[in-house]
């Protein structure tokens, strides 16, 4: 039983790592038999890992065919931004309340470094994927500050959706530069401990990305 559980974890970790690294191609159907052979595992632990990933909406299972990367729906988009807003707003309030602590100061410095890296991408490569990774790190840093392991794990479970929704929204001309400006506005409000203004700015910031993705999905 213990060995089976370890194999399930091994299969899950392999697939999640492949997804996050972009090694699985969107739209491609992956056979369980071929994937199990590639991983050197039996189908049973792989099937259990695939079922878990389907529940987390990383993949879609196609009966008698295999699985493919999850296709975003309107529900996915709305739900993701609702979850983000709820978690991030709380974490930003906590950061504002603890701005003058060593941990608060370290978090603010970290957030500023992430913005600087985003600005470099805009000015140099213009890569939406690189920018999206830095954007995820920027927002995740807010959640990490609170030190709530359960909350952070919930946020991380949305990482794949957050990342690819970001890539999509950042493909719109000018959106990356606008995001840097919006992040800088948020930083100013954090330093001034303007909680009401910060929550409004976060809501505005996330709503823009949500509407871009919904608009592109409708097309």
TrEMBL record:
One of its GO terms (molecular function) is DNA binding. Residues 5-72 form the HTH gntR-type domain. Signal peptide: none annotated. Keywords: DNA-binding, Transcription, Transcription regulation. Gene3D superfamilies: GntR ligand-binding domain-like (1.20.120.530), Winged helix-like DNA-binding domain superfamily/Winged helix DNA-binding domain (1.10.10.10). SMART domains: FCD, HTH_GNTR. This is DNA-binding transcriptional regulator, GntR family.
């Amino acid at each position: 039983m213990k060995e089976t559980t370890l194999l399930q974890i091994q299969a899950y970790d392999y697939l999640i790592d492949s997804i996050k690294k972009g090694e699985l191609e969107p739209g491609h159907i992956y056979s369980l038999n071929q994937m199990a052979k590639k991983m050197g595992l039996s189908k049973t632990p792989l099937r259990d890992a695939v079922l878990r990933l389907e529940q987390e909406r990383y993949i879609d299972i196609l009966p008698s065919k295999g699985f493919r990367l999850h296709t975003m729906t309107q529900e996915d988009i709305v739900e993701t931004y609702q979850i983000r807003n709820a978690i991030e707003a709380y974490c930003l309030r906590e950061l504002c309340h603890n701005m003058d602590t060593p941990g608060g100061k370290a978090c603010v410095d970290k957030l500023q470094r992430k913005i600087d890296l985003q600005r470099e991408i805009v000015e140099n490569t213009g890569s939406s994927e690189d920018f999206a990774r830095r954007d995820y790190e920027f927002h995740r840093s807010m959640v990490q500050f609170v030190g709530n392991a359960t909350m952070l794990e919930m946020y991380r479970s949305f990482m794949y959706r957050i990342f690819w929704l970001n890539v999509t929204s950042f493909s719109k001309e000018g959106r990356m530069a606008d995001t840097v400006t919006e992040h800088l506005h948020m930083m100013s409000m954090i330093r001034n401990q303007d909680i009401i203004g910060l929550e409004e700015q976060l809501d505005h910031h996330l709503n823009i990305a949500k509407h871009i993705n919904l608009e592109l999905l409708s097309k």
